[in-house]
Design goal:
Layout lengths: L6 E7 L3 E7 L5 E8 L6 H16 L4 E8 L2 E3 L4 E4 L11 H9 L3 E5 H12 L8 E6 L3 E7 L2 E2 L31 H4 L1 H13 L5 H5 L9 H9 L3 H25 L3 E5 L10 H11 L2 H6 L1 E4 L6 H14 L7
Parallel strand pairs: 1-4, 4-7, 8-11, 11-12
Antiparallel strand pairs: 1-2, 2-3, 5-6, 8-9, 9-10
Helix pairs in contact: 1-2, 3-11, 5-8, 7-8, 8-9
Length: 325
């Protein structure tokens, strides 16, 4: 039986960062560590960073379990990441076994966005509803579906992979190897790509002056900052991504008729200058009846959602044989 005196470590393993939190079963955070992921081809470096996070927390509390929410396609039953478009070494990789072998603590893994939905279900915006969809925006885009307070997995644990919906035929190449996916149009890298393409076409922007022409310094937070101050290209770049987000959210509303849609991920803050535009376009596209029923909200857990969910998941799984859902 879990109690508040037990501590678990939750790891959010994403395409650009590794975020770890020390949590109890109710999702309270007792410590937080964040690293850049570095070279996503270098398994030793990434594993070492995860181990460092665990060792850091072990020095402060007795840790009962480790839960990892990994970007990519995950076989949670075997503890294997089948593939991950944004973390290249995770290809049929036994992540749970590798971490347990190094740390000697029970380790469980699942898809990162499903872990975020798990947190929303237990301690976040999904606590008081039966049906919701959780969508995250960052290096990639992911989704998780909750119906009757249970996460929908699908046959291969890939239900909710909305980042890989094809929106533009023969469009930009996605990390998964296909073209024109949602992720290639509305993720952080997609916004930056659009902005830099426009600069290469000769478009003027105050962002260039701020970095003295060094394009490597341009990222989404900077673009968002200048969008807030009225920079035309910055606003256009965010609206470019926002348009496709509005389309996909409207598809979700019409297809699933959820009570709530929870938007999360590190990119969401960067989209703040065009957030009202997003809601306006969703209103334009979605059917009126399910649109009036759905509540579209931002995650109250912020960037911690996935790591909190993974931490709670690990604590629960440690004492349960079989599926939680």
């Amino acid at each position: 039986m879990n109690d508040k005196s037990e501590f678990g470590i939750g790891i959010d393993l994403g395409g650009t960062k590794i975020l770890g939190t020390l949590v109890d079963i109710t999702g309270n955070i007792f410590g937080k560590v964040k690293f850049g992921i570095g070279d996503t081809n270098d398994s030793n470096s990434v594993i070492k960073k995860i181990v460092n996070i665990v060792e850091n927390f072990k020095s402060t509390q007795k840790v009962s379990s480790i839960g990892i929410g990994s970007a990519g396609f995950v076989d949670y039953k075997r503890g294997i990441v089948l593939s991950s478009p944004n973390i290249k070494f995770l290809n049929e990789f036994p992540l749970a076994e590798e971490i347990k072998k190094l740390i000697n603590i029970e380790t469980f893994i699942d898809n990162d966005v499903k872990m975020g939905a798990f947190a929303e279900l237990y301690v976040g915006e999904g606590r008081n509803v039966n049906d919701f969809v959780f969508i995250t925006f960052g290096t990639g885009i992911g989704g998780a579906i909750v119906i009757n307070k249970k996460i929908v997995r699908g046959f291969d644990n890939l239900a909710g992979e909305i980042g890989h919906l094809t929106l533009v035929e023969n469009g930009y190449l996605c990390g998964c190897g296909k073209r024109g996916h949602f992720e290639t149009l509305s993720s952080g890298p997609a916004i930056r790509r659009y902005f830099l393409e426009q600069v290469s076409f000769g478009r003027k922007t105050k962002v260039l002056e701020s970095v003295n022409g060094d394009l490597s310094l341009i990222d989404v937070p900077l673009i968002s900052e200048f969008a807030e101050n009225g920079d035309e290209l910055s606003i256009e770049s965010l609206n470019y991504a926002m348009h496709y987000i509005a389309l996909v959210v409207s598809y979700v509303i019409d297809l699933l008729n959820p009570e709530k849609i929870i938007l999360g991920g590190g990119l969401l803050e960067g989209l703040e200058p065009v957030y009202q535009n997003l809601l306006d376009e969703i209103n334009e596209y979605a059917l009126d009846i399910p649109l009036k029923s759905v509540d579209i909200v931002k995650s109250s857990l912020g960037e911690n959602a996935i790591s909190i969910g993974a931490g709670i998941f690990g604590l629960m799984k440690k004492n349960i044989t079989g599926d939680l859902w």
